[in-house]
Write a structure and sequence with these properties.
By secondary structure, the chain is mainly beta. The protein has a single domain (7-121), classed as Bacterial Pleckstrin homology domain (PH-domain like). It has helices spanning 17-21, 110-121, and strands spanning 11-14, 32-37, 42-46, 49-56, 62-69, 73-79, 88-94, 98-104. Strands 5-4-3-2-1-8-7-6 form an eight-stranded mixed sheet. The radius of gyration is 14 Å and the shape is globular. InterPro entries: PHb, PHb_sf.
C-alpha cells in the first residue's frame, strides 16, 4: 500500500496521464472524473472511488494501485487556495485507514471535488 505520509506523493497537478494508467482497473459503469500527477505518482477520482498510483523503482515499470472507495469515507476537509498561497488541500478520513492528505498545486477545482465526494457519502 502507498505510504500516504510521504509528502512527495501528495503535491499534485491536474494531468490526464493517470486516467489512462488506471483504465484497465475500472469497472463497468465507472468513469474517470479527474486525474492528477505529482513528480511520478498520481491520483484519479472516479465516480466510485479514488485510485492512488505509486510508481516504484528506477524505471518506473512497477506500480502500486490503492483503491479508496467513497463508501469508506467518514469525513473530509478542504482548504482552498488563496491570493498568495495557490496550493489547495483535501484531507479525507477513512473508517479503517485513517487520514489521507492530498495537496494540489496550481489551479484545482477543490470545491468541485468536495461536492463530488459529498454526493457519495451524504
Amino acid at each position: 500500500m502507498i505510504d500516504f505520509d510521504n509528502k512527495g506523493f501528495l503535491k499534485l497537478k491536474q494531468h490526464n496521464e493517470y486516467a489512462d494508467r488506471v483504465s484497465t482497473l475500472l469497472l463497468d459503469g465507472e468513469n474517470v472524473i479527474d486525474a492528477y500527477k505529482s513528480m511520478r505518482d498520481g491520483v484519479v477520482f472516479t465516480n466510485k472511488r479514488i485510485i492512488a498510483v505509486n510508481v516504484q523503482g528506477l524505471t518506473g515499470s512497477k506500480k502500486d494501485f490503492t483503491s479508496l472507495p467513497y463508501k469508506n469515507i467518514v469525513a473530509y476537509s478542504i482548504e482552498t487556495s488563496g491570493t498568495f498561497d495557490l496550493d489547495s488541500e483535501l484531507e479525507i478520513y477513512f473508517s479503517s485507514l485513517g487520514k489521507i492528505k492530498f495537496e494540489f498545486t496550481g489551479k484545482t477545482e477543490i470545491v468541485e471535488i468536495s461536492k463530488f465526494i459529498s454526493k457519495y457519502i451524504l
